[in-house]
Design brief:
The complex is a heterodimer of chains A (about 300) and B (about 325).
Chain A: H1 3-34, H2 41-59, H3 62-83, H4 93-115, E1 131-133, E2 139-141, H5 142-164, H6 166-183, H7 188-210, H8 220-235, H9 240-268, H10 271-296
Antiparallel strand pairs in A: 1-2
Helix pairs in contact in A: 1-5, 1-6, 1-7, 1-8, 1-9, 2-3, 2-4, 2-7, 2-8, 3-7, 5-6, 8-9, 9-10
Chain B: H1 13-36, H2 40-65, H3 74-89, H4 95-117, H5 122-141, E1 152-153, H6 169-192, H7 194-204, H8 206-211, H9 216-242, E2 244-245, H10 252-265, H11 271-290, H12 295-308, H13 312-322
Antiparallel strand pairs in B: 1-2
The chains are: A mainly alpha (about 300), B mainly alpha (about 325).
Pfam families (chain B): BPD_transp_2
Subcellular location (chain B): Cell membrane
Membrane topology (chain B): Multi-pass membrane protein
């Protein structure tokens, strides 16, 4: 447990946190404003990654592929909204769960048909394909640092958008009482579509950013979806600030837990038992955290809705 | 006299007796079919359906009836299965010991996690039950003495007073169907009782039930424990069916699948859950036999059921004569 290892793992934790934030931001807005549980949000992340692969093959460069994939992700999100999700807004939460589960099954398979089941990858983008030396033997890829910076920029942008603009004001108003906003003469359907498309694009952006460092494969969004739900529940549904704070907490706790849980368990347990308990405890950590947070604050850390 | 609000709105009382009768009769006749056509696969497939249906019916009891969406229900199955697996590892094969242990373990887990989870509402409840399910899952992966990640192979099946009732395909099948029927009837009696009316009332309006001087918390907790025990029974049977226990039985995918089966069949009638399980597994089996990419059909089918088949499959079956 050296200092450099701690530094590297902290960076990795921030990186996971940023990806989670990009996914959770859309999820929490869609949930908070439209009261719509979208399980298919994780699939948007996967689509983003695959679209990055496709766009890269088309243009041959990451930088030219980025805007192309981003637009395609937005288009996919809007297409899904028009075809399926729009019909689900007035439905029961459980209807939404079943239908969006069906969408997950479909898209995971579609991706397999189009791109094959084998994992794909995108090479690191030009200018970011080098590493920062941390010690004589250890270096950290600059792309991963760029990813954290890009995520932070999006967070700042989003915060400004939500707190300083008229659209943001409507979104916040929608999160606390959508019916009242509609009654005041705002076209709530258009607001919903805007929020939905934007959220889908953010999740797609996370997928595009992840494409060069993780393997792009069918089902890659499923586990992140669950983590994103953990994030928005801890943060308080509908709260961007809550999503940001809890995404970073979850990212750090999960990553640091995985690297140090076994060592910590060794302090209290015999080595063989610690080797068993450590990894399980590390995987459990975020769920324990969520259970504790919900027990103490049943509506999350930053509750928004007055409902 | 049962008040109108207790029976499902769209189905006349007749359908709610007829549908389960047909379903159970159909299940009971499967061994006859399997004998005549020498179809062992059908036999095993029907066993798989019946085992899982016990868990789905138990989920419908709290989800459809009491409005508690448990996203960690697979944990109870896993706990029941691990109870059987771990006892068999210590050479305890007698059903009169292992099954009560399995049920008690499931009930205890439900009591502890339920008492905490019921502090929260709505989506927060869904997520906290998911959290407990995941904790159970990762605990199972860390049990290296009992297989850890890889799971635990049992070297035989549970015995019943020393006889191997569980080992024969047909007798095991009827045992499973018997457990399913007993669970179904028991839960249905609960739903019709005063206890059930409090649950259904609290689902509609917690405030009104409280205004009547009843605190729904304890009723819900008891319902949660009953549901957990029934699901653990399913797990105990599942361990015997596969002669194998693994953490994957507790994964959140499985919990999600259970909810989907419930919804597909239609909520709140218990036999809807049974129908949903049969439909889900049969669809999966038939479609995966026709094309490798069967999920391309299966996914949109689920969406269509939601969009056009209000109230799940049971709604389609029972609404026809009325409207």
């Amino acid at each position: 447990m050296s200092f450099t290892l701690l530094a590297v793992q902290t960076l990795n934790g921030l990186q996971l946190g940023i990806l989670l934030f990009l996914i959770a931001a859309g999820l929490t807005l869609v949930f908070g404003v439209m009261d719509f549980i979208n399980l298919a949000h994780g699939v948007q992340y996967m689509l983003g990654a695959y679209l990055a692969v496709a766009a890269f093959q088309f243009t041959g460069g990451f930088w030219s592929a980025l805007p192309l994939a981003l637009l395609a992700a937005l288009a996919c999100g809007l297409l899904l909204e028009v075809l399926v999700f729009r019909r689900l807004y007035d439905r029961d939460h459980l209807d939404q769960v079943l239908a969006t589960f069906g969408v997950i099954i479909f898209l995971n398979e579609l991706v397999k048909v189009v791109w094959g089941a084998a994992p794909l990858s995108v090479p690191l983008p030009l200018y970011l394909d080098w590493s920062v030396p941390l010690t004589d033997t250890l270096s950290y890829p600059v792309y991963r640092i760029a990813l954290i910076v890009a995520g932070l920029l999006v967070a700042v942008l989003l915060y400004g958008l939500v707190t300083r603009t008229r659209i943001g004001m409507l979104v916040r108003a929608g999160a606390s009482d959508a019916e009242m906003v509609a009654a005041l003469g705002v076209n709530i359907r258009r607001l919903f579509m805007l929020v939905f498309g934007f959220g889908a694009m953010l999740a797609g952006f996370a997928g595009i950013l992840a494409a060069p460092i993780f393997s792009v494969e069918p089902g890659m969004g499923d586990n992140l979806l669950i983590l994103a739900f953990v994030v928005i529940v801890i943060g308080g549904i509908g709260s961007i600030r809550g999503a940001f704070v809890s995404a970073l907490i979850i990212g750090l706790v999960d990553t640091l837990g995985r690297s140090f849980a076994t060592d910590i368990a060794r302090l209290a347990l015999p080595p063989s038992a610690a080797n068993d308990v450590g990894p399980a405890l590390a995987s459990m950590l975020i769920y324990i955290l969520m259970a504790v947070v919900l027990f103490v604050r049943p509506s999350g850390l930053f509750p928004v809705s007055s409902k | 006299m049962i008040p109108a609000s207790i029976t499902p709105k769209t189905s006349p009382l007749k359908a709610s007796t007829l549908v389960p009768l047909i379903l159970f009769l159909g299940l009971a006749l499967v061994p006859v079919y399997a004998q005549v056509f020498d179809d062992r696969f059908m036999m095993l497939f029907a066993t798989r359906i019946a085992v899982l249906a016990i868990a789905v019916v138990s989920l419908d009891f709290i989800l459809g009836f009491a409005g508690l969406v448990s996203f960690g229900h697979a944990a109870f199955i896993g706990i029941g299965a691990y109870a059987i697996g771990i006892l068999s590892e210590h050479d305890i094969w007698e059903a009169w010991i292992s099954f009560p242990v399995a049920l008690a373990a499931g009930g205890l887990f439900a009591l502890i996690t339920g008492a905490i989870s019921m502090k929260t509402r709505g989506v927060y409840f869904i997520m906290i039950t998911l959290a407990f399910g995941q904790m159970a899952y990762f605990t199972a992966t860390s049990l290296s003495a009992y297989g850890g990640d890889d799971g635990l192979t049992m070297w035989g099946r549970t015995e019943f007073f020393g006889t191997n009732l569980f080992a024969n395909d047909i007798s095991f099948f009827y045992l499973v169907v018997g457990c399913l029927a007993a669970s179904y009837l028991l839960l249905r009696i609960f739903t019709g009782s005063r206890f059930g009316r409090v649950l259904a009332g609290a689902k509609q309006s917690e405030l009104r039930v409280e205004a009547l001087g009843i605190s729904p918390y304890r009723y819900r907790l008891v319902a949660y424990c009953i549901s957990g025990m029934v699901a653990a029974l399913a797990g105990a049977l599942m361990a015997n069916q596969a002669e194998f226990v693994s953490p994957s039985a507790m994964s959140w995918h499985r919990s999600g699948e259970l909810i989907v089966m419930c919804l597909l069949g239609g909520l709140g009638s218990l036999h809807g859950a049974l129908l949903g399980t049969i439909a889900y597994l049969a669809l999966e089996e038939v479609l995966s036999g026709t094309t490798e990419h069967w999920r391309l059909i299966f996914g949109p089918l689920l969406v269509l059921v939601v969009l056009y088949g209000k109230g799940g499959l049971i709604g389609l079956v029972t609404r026809r004569p009325g409207k």
